[in-house]
Write a structure and sequence with these properties.
Elements: E1 4-10, E2 15-23, E3 29-38, H1 40-43, H2 51-73, E4 82-88, H3 92-109, E5 113-117, H4 118-124, H5 126-130, E6 137-142, E7 147-152, E8 159-164, H6 170-180, H7 188-195, H8 222-237, H9 244-269, E9 274-278, H10 285-298, E10 301-303, H11 307-310, H12 314-327
Parallel strand pairs: 1-4, 4-5, 6-9, 9-10
Antiparallel strand pairs: 1-2, 2-3, 6-7, 7-8
This protein binds 5'-O-[(R)-(carboxyoxy)(hydroxy)phosphoryl]adenosine and zinc ion (ZN).
The site of zinc ion (ZN) has 5 residues, from α4.
Family: Belongs to the KAE1 / TsaD family.
Protein name: tRNA N6-adenosine threonylcarbamoyltransferase
Keywords: Acyltransferase, Cytoplasm, Iron, Metal-binding, Transferase, tRNA processing
Length: 344
């Protein structure tokens, strides 16, 4: 069998993504195109993603994004050998736009359709950047909707959750803290910027679930967010000016400390020596910096895809679809539903 072209469609949240990859006989995947349209600006004044707005935006963006991906790759739709689409988890209405589009393209082209897991896509995307993953590795997936530690035993084959957030996702905590500090949405980038000007030791914010009795690799960020809110509230009540850079640096330090500590501990507990960090929060400068330090000290290889591939996109779905296709899995039926609560 010769090389195959896989098209990936992503629409689980506020990004409409269409990606194209080339799958070689030996299972290697190569990025050909990655077109993304985001409705993030339309959600900004609400401080979070509004599902109805996201669904409508996918509907208008899907066709043009598809065209752009094809133009960027220099391919025609008829060159596509298989289609992968995010089946879940995500927003129901948003997912349906991608799933319906994928079914239409797969039917028209008479090619197999693969409904894949969004979380697996965040892991598979690293193979586009750094080549094949080892047989076993650990992935720290941190975004606006997820904070998970995943044990990966074959991309596209077996991924097991070994830890998750018991309340807010890491990105959600960034977005909420940004709101407290009157910084724009999404909160990650402005907090990351402000933090560079502040002292990470200025305020001792709590590190949730890091006690010796917290054996499972779970996270908790709502206590941290509440601690920031209380601290800011007290300062404002006392008429003091808020030292925004110090609050950002101290908050960011707490998040990076917990995420990296738990990821290294989980890698050691599961006897793996490769850690992949993905999702929108992976773009965080302190998280990657501290992860680099701690992984080096623990003898763990760290892989962080470039920021553009860490946030939601269609290439990650195409990459996962290619791995699933290569594994010889059966295609999904054309009556495949969208599954907002799809587990890993
Ligand atoms: O993966 P993503 O684009 O979308 C999903 O949530 O699936 O992640 C978006 C999240 C937002 O919460 C945003 O605030 C956060 O990633 N983020 C960051 C940074 N850039 C984006 N968080 C921390 N530091 C950053 N530099
Ligand atoms: Zn995502």
């Amino acid at each position: 069998m010769s090389e195959r072209i896989v098209l990936g469609i992503e629409s689980s949240c506020d990004e409409t993504g269409v990606g194209l990859v080339r799958l070689s006989d030996d299972g290697r995947v190569e990025l050909l195109a990655d077109a993304v349209a985001s409705s993030v600006d339309e959600h900004a004044r609400f401080g979070g993603v509004v599902p109805e707005i996201a669904s409508r935006a996918h509907l208008t963006a899907m066709g043009p994004t598809m065209r752009r991906a094809l133009e960027d790759s220099g391919l025609a739709l008829s060159d596509v050998d298989a289609i992968a689409v995010t089946a879940g988890p995500g927003l129901a209405g948003a997912l349906m736009v991608g799933v319906a589009s994928a079914k239409a393209y797969a039917t028209a082209l008479n090619v197999p359709l693969f409904g894949v897991n969004h979380l697996g896509g965040h892991v598979a995307v690293d193979t586009l950047e750094h080549g094949p993953l080892p047989e076993r590795c650990l992935a720290l997936l941190v975004s606006g909707g997820h904070s998970q530690l995943l044990l990966v035993e074959g991309v596209g084959e077996k991924i097991t959750e070994v830890g998750t957030t018991i309340d807010d996702a890491a990105g959600e905590a960034y977005d909420k803290v940004a709101r407290i500090l009157d910084l724009p949405y999404p909160g990650g980038p402005p907090i990351d910027q402000q933090a560079k000007l502040g002292d990470p030791k200025a305020i001792a914010f709590p590190r949730g679930l890091t006690g010796p009795r917290d054996a499972r690799h779970d996270f908790s960020f709502s206590g941290l967010k509440t601690a920031v809110a209380r601290w800011v509230e007290t300062e404002r009540r006392e008429g003091r000016e808020i030292p925004v850079p110090d609050v950002c640096a101290s908050f960011q330090e707490a998040v990076a400390d917990v995420l990296t500590m738990k990821a290294v501990r989980a890698a050691q507990d599961h006897d793996v020596d490769t850690l992949v960090i993905s999702g929108g929060v992976a773009a965080n400068s302190r998280l990657s910096g501290l992860a680099r330090e701690r992984c080096a000290a623990a003898g763990i290889e760290l892989r962080v895809p470039r920021p553009r591939l860490c946030t939601d996109n269609g290439a990650m779905i195409a990459a996962l679809g290619a791995h699933v296709l290569h594994s010889g899995a059966k295609p999904s039926p054309l009556d495949m539903p969208a599954n907002p609560g799809l587990p890993v």
